[in-house]
Each structure stands twice: as C-alpha cells, then as structure tokens.
Amino acid sequence: MNRVVLGKAAPVRLAFACILAGGHLLIEDLPGVGKTTLAHALAATLDLSFQRIQFTSDMLPSDIIGVSVYERESGAFKFHPGPLFAQLVLADEINRATPKTQSALLEAMAEAQITVDGATHKLPAPFFVVATQNPVELAGTYPLPDSQLDRFMLRIGLDYPDPAAERALLASTDRRELLAQLTPCLSTAQLAQLRSAATAVLASPALIDYVQALLAASRTHAQIRVGLSPRAGLALLAAARAYALLEGRAYCVPEDVQAVFPGIAAHRLIPSASSSASRDRLASDLLAKVPVRN
Fold first, then answer.
1. Looking at residue 8, what DSSP letter applies?
2. Fold entry, domain 200-289
3. 134-151: string of b/e by CB count within 10 Å (b at 16+)?
4. How far is 94 from 106, CA to CA, in rounded Å?
5. SS3 assignment, position 111
C-alpha cells in the first residue's frame, strides 16, 4: 500500500484499522491527492470485489442499489443489483450527489443489506464503503447530514505529500500501472480471522475509563453543542482495538485511543453557534484536556 500511496503511512494504517474494526471510511480532501488511489489499493491488497460509483448531482438512488424490472416471460418483477453489491464500494465524491441519493447508502452501511419493493437483499461479506468527498466550500457540493456522517467510523484526510514523497511520485511509474501490479496479501477468510482477532484485543477497565472520560468531556465542552454518542464510543473502542492489533499487541494502550480519536470524533462533533473552532481543532482540544487514566 505504501509503495502506491506515497508518504501517507499514517492514513493508510488508519484505513486498515477501520476495515478491521468493521466500520466504513470517509476520506475528505482536495481533488487529486490520492483518495481514489487509496481505495483501489485497499481492494487490490485485500482481494475484495470492487465497484466505483461516481456520484453526480443527477444520480438517483436506483442507480446505486439497483432496480426491479418487470419480465413479461415470467410475469414477475426481477431485481437487478446495482454497483452497491461489491465487497468494497468506492463512493467517489459522495457530496456531489443530492441528499436523497446519499441516503440510499444508510441501510447498506448500517445493516449490510438493502430493501427494494419490500424485499431485503443481503450485501456481500465483508462489506466496506470508502467514500471520498471534496471540502464543502468547493462549488457543487451538498454537505453530508450529521446522521450520515455518523455512519462512517473514521474520517481521514491525505493532504499534500511532503517534498520527498512528491518527488518520488513525479519520478515514478503511473499510479494506475502500479495498481495493476498489486497482488493480494490476504484472503477473505484471513481478513475475517483478523477482524475476529481485533474484537478479542484486551481493553482494560482503566482504558475504558479513559474512553468514557473523552466522551463525557465532549458533552460538557463549552464550544461543542452536540458531543459524542454511545455509538461513537463503541466505534472509538473498536478502532483502538484494531489499531493495537496492527501494532502487534493483544491489548490496548492509551496511545491507540489517541491515534484513532481525531478520525473517530471530529466529523461527529457539532460546534456551538458561538464557536469559531473547526471540528478537528475541537477533537484535538479534547485529547489535550482529558488526562490519561492509569
């Protein structure tokens, strides 16, 4: 992964932590910094079936989930699956579609299934959504509602590469050729085993106290109108366990929580009307103010 997505070891590790924790990933950054390349590389490395959906302002929910078509021969409707039926789905530039189309992903992301005309259809396992979005101040975007943002376990950014990584990028092979050369490192069965191992990583009572203190601080912070929910706390603990597993440990330490906390918390926090601080700044402030529990 790091040979394809240059100079982004930390975001790559967070992406793997997200999939091991059973969540979905939101990548928010400027166009052209490697968001789509990261999703392609994840699918190739983990040997997952892959579909890319390019979200546009005229897209309909049926373009994503599929549609039931009447067949004259059988005299019945037959469901034709949409591109959502893949193990890794790249929802590219998700905030360029209207809220109605964005919401078509809600049931899929929460339940790994969709419902069409009263019939429920299971999605492939594992089911992992990687959504990319451009900053909301760019033209032609529709901000994701908070209820949908909450469905993403982690939100990360890639930012511009450092000078050394950018020079290597400019001097090396085209990313599309490198993606074609990637070979899987894990089978689906091995990925399932790692997911099970992540859930078994030990989180001590003291560590859970630390997680709970972060949640409580987010709800009483003067510049935060809506703090972190219990679901955010569960996501924080699951991601910290997965991060600890990637670090080669069978137990969590506070540094694991701190590594994933900005990606878990920032997009879920809603600043107060009087606050001028960004969500990322508020997440960093919470980490700085809440002491580690021993």
1. -
2. Helicase, Ruva Protein; domain 3 (1.10.8)
3. beeeeeebbebeeebbbb
4. 13
5. helix
Local confidence band at 124 (pLDDT 50, 70, 90 cut-offs): very high
- In tens, the pLDDT along 65-80 reads 998 888 888 888 888 9
Rounded to a whole number, what is the largest CA-CA distance in the chain?
69
8 Å CB contact between 214 and 236: yes
Q: Give the three-class secondary structure for 9.
A: helix
Q: Do the beta carbons of residue 240 and residue 257 sit within 8 Å? A: yes
b/e sequence 65-74, b meaning 16+ C-beta within 10 Å: bbbeeeeeee
Tell me the H-state helices in the chain: 9-20, 35-46, 62-65, 99-102, 106-111, 146-149, 163-171, 175-181, 188-199, 205-220, 230-246, 254-265, 279-289
pTM: 0.89
Cα torsion 88, 89, 95, 101 to 10°: value is -140
| Nearest by Cα to 23 from 101, 135, 130 | 130
Per-residue tokens: 144: 């994701």
The tokens describing 161, both together, are 């590469």
**Low-confidence winner among 101-115, 183-197, 206-220, 244-258 (lowest mean pLDDT):** 101-115
Query: CA 44 to CA 60: how far, in whole Å?
Result: 28
Domain ranges of the chain: 9-188, 200-289
- Closest residue by Cα to residue 129 from 77, 63, 52: 52
Q: pLDDT band for position 131 (50/70/90)? A: very high
C-alpha span between 78 and 126 (Å, rounded): 25
Task: Read off the pLDDT of residues 233-244 as tens digits, 9 standing for 90 and up.
Answer: 999 999 999 999
For 9-188, give the CATH class: alpha beta
* Rounded-to-integer distance, Cα 122 and Cα 64, Å: 15
